[in-house]
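Dear Dr. H.,

I hope your travels went smoothly. While you were away I took the liberty of generating a structure for the chain from your last submission, since the lab meeting agenda had it listed for discussion. I wanted you to have the full record in hand beforehand rather than looking at slides cold. The sequence, exactly as received, is reproduced here:
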Amino acid sequence: MTPRRTASAALVAAPLVAATMSLLISAPANARPDAHTEARAAGSAAAATGSATGPAGDTLRAAAKGSGIRIGTAVDMAALADDAPHRQLVGAEFSTVSPENVMKWEAVEPTQGTYNWAPADQLVDFARAHGQTVRGHTLVWHSQNPAWLTEAAFTPAQLRALLRKHITDEVRHFKGRIWHWDVANEVFNEDGTLRDTIWLRNLGPGYIADAFRWAHQADPKAKLYLNDYNNEGLNAKSDAYYALAKKLRSEGVPVQGYGMQGHLGIQYGLPSGVLENVRRFDKLGLESAFTEVDVRMPLPADPIKLAAQAQGFTTLLQACLLAKRCVSYTVWGFTDRYSWVPGVFDGQGAATPLDENLTRKPAYTAIRDTLALASE
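The corresponding predicted structure, in token form, is as follows:
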């Protein structure tokens, strides 16, 4: 990795999105432009996006080369296999990739004792062929566990043995090929209390430390991360992660990174204190990363919403660039063609930097230009 340039401080003095967008993005959820603005926006929607591809070298990856961070995307393996233009952009635009689903427990061990590594291996092979690193996602989670695990009456001792075996088998399978592992994913509630999960109920809070120890034993060179959403700014959840990381580090548990997913919505405003939050984890000696960034909006999209979206993306990116130990910034899919958002949030979408036709939005340009500024 290229050392972080001191010139990145210029990001604060040279924001890429107008100050008026800051007011828009922090407006109440029911705020809306007047009819004249809406009509003008609808008439000029086509002008809000750029071309699908730019000149050779005009990519996020090229812009990030001297910035000190890796730029990444989550990858849907069906899209990677079936959509050639999409596949070309995954290889050209990004220097790190994350599996959307194929490394989760239900995918790698759908039947107890029978593993299916093939889709995840294909992603790792693709990354190697394109000079990319891989973020492993995820080892311990309350969701997307196999039915054979969650629907059986295992004792706490049996569950602990199963969790240890799962972590050990998966990390060993990919040993030497994974840059970061999201070890413990979404372990806290919004108020900073531990989430009620199969692991907490049966194993107690010590399962988190155990998971890190087991993963480290299986691959001592992989960097091991905590990861969650709504923990980007200063709030009860990020306070809980700070306290947990500090405690685990003091006990010698190999926690090496703090992951902030970055799932934002323009109607809710930006999280506050993002840079301050990241910097306090810097002081603990942890790396940090923005791991799943997307910025959704109420549909339909228009130029005002797209500009507000661009600020959401760059606010998190600027915090990463200005922190000493933030090492990567990953979008959770780069095109609306395959985004998870419309299937989960009714009436919302357009959450990624490229539209369904792989056309660049203002968010893409803002990310690229921010990376380029940091690289100068």
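Two observations you may find useful: The chain has one domain: 6-28+49-375. The domain at 6-28+49-375 is CATH 3.20.20.80 (TIM Barrel).

With kind regards,
E. W.
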